[in-house]
Amino acid sequence: MRDTSMIEYARIGVRVGREGCTDCGGGIVTIKDSKFKDNPTGLYFDPYQRYLNGGEAYNYGRVANTNFTWTADLRGLGKPLRHVDVRESGGLTFRGNTYQNEDYGYYDFAERGTGIYSANSQVTETWLCTAGLSPCPAGDLYRSQFLHLSTGIDAYGNSTRTLQAHYGVYMDNNIGIGVKGLYRPEILNNDFRVPNRGNTVGIYLVGSTGYAVENNFFQGMSKVNIDWNFGIAVHASGAFENELYRNRFKNLGTGIASTDTNAVAPEYDFGLRWKCNTFDQTIAFADIRVESGSVSDEQGTCHTGVTGRRSSTAITRSRAARPQGSNP
User: Fold this and answer.
1) CB 3.0-4.6 Å disulfide test: which of 61, 63, 82, 328 passes with 29?
2) Is residue 1 situated within a structural domain?
3) Residue 23 domain-assigned?
4) pTM for the model
5) Per-residue 3-state assignment (H helix, E strand, C coil) for 234-245
6) Cβ neighbours of residue 193 under 8 Å, at least 6 residues apart?
């Protein structure tokens, strides 16, 4: 599917199935420069698993520079569900696509739909370079965008299959990227514009470990009257070494928040660490907030900002406003 092709008003735009067989099925889908409009579910992958020479043979589906959108034309015909729905499949790559709800004002925040839903699957969502050069010229580089959705990427897992989300733009989503039960997900170099609503978040990590969350920028969509929104929220990473590294936070209620077990008791030398993160004005409630549970007590040095106030790295609850701190 390519060259300005479009599928619209289908219950499922494209479905790739295993056809009820064992160690076979799946399918190769290649979609480029196309559009999925007002399909409650745009692209659906049924479960697929095959082994070759002792290793998993991935599905080679590819989608690039394609617009997945819901508009006012969908009213009365259905409701937004998932632009892409992947069930127990591996090897899928998405590059430089747009996932959006253009009719977002019509829906409650929880009913705007999801960009990519991934259940126990191997999914890579990243940028596209049309020039074939490295480094890619700015005019030939396309970033994926997730706009005005309930959740940008919603990824669940319980195996070695995981998520890679690189250099995307997430704007006005209740949850930018939600990760639950994944091992070694990568969330790198993304921009998150977090709406000024309570309990909205850029990245939400639940029961996941071994993650790389690095070099992301989180910015609230309002500079005044900031609500209870978050850059990163971490819940129950377990008693393992994990790190949030070199992320930047601005105009949010809280930069980083954590709950439940995120460190090895009783010494707490190993566990969740925050390194080289920067917190710019205004962070309304706390740069770093440990609501309950544990994190590593080896957090390095806090540097004060121009106001002379520093970010919190104590393993305590904190509601204090601490603008312009960093913890290199």
Assistant:
1) 61
2) no
3) yes
4) 0.90
5) EECCCCCCEEEE
6) 169, 170, 171, 172, 219, 220, 221
| Cβ-based neighbours of 308, under 8 Å, separated by 6 or more | none
Q: Is residue 201 part of a domain?
A: yes
State the residue for tokens 């005005």: 148
d(CA 239, CA 255) in angstroms, rounded, equals 22
Q: How many domains does the chain have?
A: 1
**Owning domain of residue 257:** 6-326
Angstrom distance (rounded) from CA 79 to CA 113: 8
What is the DSSP code (8-state) at residue 138? Answer: G
Across 4-144, where does the E strand assignment appear? 6-8, 12-16, 30-32, 35-37, 41-45, 51-52, 55-56, 62-64, 67-70, 82-87, 92-95, 98-101, 114-119, 123-126, 128-129, 141-142
d(CA 12, CA 9): 8
Q: Within 13 A of 122's CA, how many CA atoms are on the CB side?
A: 15
- Half-sphere exposure (Cβ direction) of 85: Cα atoms closer than 13 Å: 18
d(CA 259, CA 251): 22
Residue 306 — very low, low, confident or very high, per pLDDT cuts 50/70/90?
very low
Distance CA 115, CA 41 (A): 10
Is 248 within 8 Å of 277 (Cβ atoms)? yes
